[in-house]
Amino acid sequence: MKKTVINPWTWQEERGYVQAVEVKEATGTLYCAGQAAVHADGTSSNADMRTQLELAIQNLETVVSEAGYECRNIVRLTVYTTSSDEFIKNCFDIFRSFVAKHGMKQVVTLMQVVALYETLNVELEATVVK
């Protein structure tokens, strides 16, 4: 696989994403459903957003790994949250640590939604290549 990052500017680097990613000669593409703070028994977390984000990240890492892919090859990540303000103020450090941990270079869209399933307040949807 050949992956090329396109960044006409530098300001997005401190925000943990890139403007575009071109992928050529991929041998597979994994489209992950939204991963949220759902425990292994299927129950939704009712914890605060920080705690939910940590569990959502763990769940995404598990799905990606089980499929035989690597998080470093996430090329698109959509973050759904019930409060983008809370996400940016209280959770962005966790998000940036996740990106740094895997050396990810991905495009990101942050979307505030009215509600998520049951008690959930953050969800991560990813596209991964190899």
Automatic annotation (TrEMBL):
Q: CDD domains given for it? A: YjgF_YER057c_UK114_family (cd00448)
Kindly give the Pfam families that the UniProt entry links to this protein.
Answer: Ribonuc_L-PSP
Query: SUPFAM superfamilies, per this entry?
Result: YjgF-like
Enzyme type, top EC level: hydrolase
Q: Which UniProt keywords apply?
A: Hydrolase
| Entry EC no(s) | 3.5.-.-
A single GO molecular function term of this UniProt record: hydrolase activity
UniProt protein name: RidA family protein
List the lineage, top down.
Bacteria, Pseudomonadati, Bacteroidota, Sphingobacteriia, Sphingobacteriales
